[in-house]
Amino acid sequence: MKLIIDPAYQGLAFELAKEWEVLRTDFKRFPDGELYFRFKEPVEGENVSILVAGYPHQDRAILRTVLLSRTLRDLGANAILGIIPYFPYARQDKRFRSGEPISAKAVAESLFESGVNKILTVDVHSEGVFAEFGGSFMNLSSIGRWADYLTENLEGDFFLIAPDQGRSKTVRRLAQKAACDFITLSKERNLETGEIEDIVVKQEKLQKLSKQCEVAILFDDIISTGGTASTAIQEVHKAFEGDVIAAFTHGLFQSGSISKLLRAGTDKILTTDTVNTSYSDVSVAPLLSRKIKEITKQ
What we know:
six-stranded parallel β-sheet; 35% helix; single chain; elongated
């Protein structure tokens, strides 16, 4: 297998490049901003994986992947795997209001139509919208990587916090692997503004856990503006005096979100390396590597 590395990717790309031959490709931008690339070696009959940086500049990433996969297909590549650790547009997984697109589905369809045979991603925001693609759309869970990191690096007892019911199942699974307790918050969001209007914390259980644990870990799949996380952490601090860690699979960090987290009382921020951040202490490279090897053996 040969690997094409999105020119926007860094840390995670270096790890995967240690295991597979990188397909030599020239990338550049024309003066008007349009993309140019050229494969510097034959691809006919090759199995090729494209490592895609889904953030930032999501629109560029999608178009670049479509052009790469279409060209690979036209030049006779045998199979094309799209490795998209952070899958863009996944949060728009249904029509929340009349007239909206189902962007998540449209992006996946455009990639498959361009020649991608399989898509590999991590902790996609909502799996349901991709169900019709069956085994061609593979979503890996980072729970094992998180459990290993937390149990190996944290001192003292800790518990997990799910920011809403939608994340409760995932956080429960992580709590089981990490052998710790967890609580679930509830929230109400304004569909027009996207802002969180209310967050409810089960104070009785939180007070009980505060006597047993030194660290609380808020765990979510994505941080963007930080509104949900910072509000939740403020509520948690009303009944918990220990350290609070904010942990996310995908760190987008928009709109001063880091400042919001710190003002809310966050003691540490953690993310994976699906998106390159200065907080990417948890690597999903081993997770992706195992799955890629499994796919290429088929």
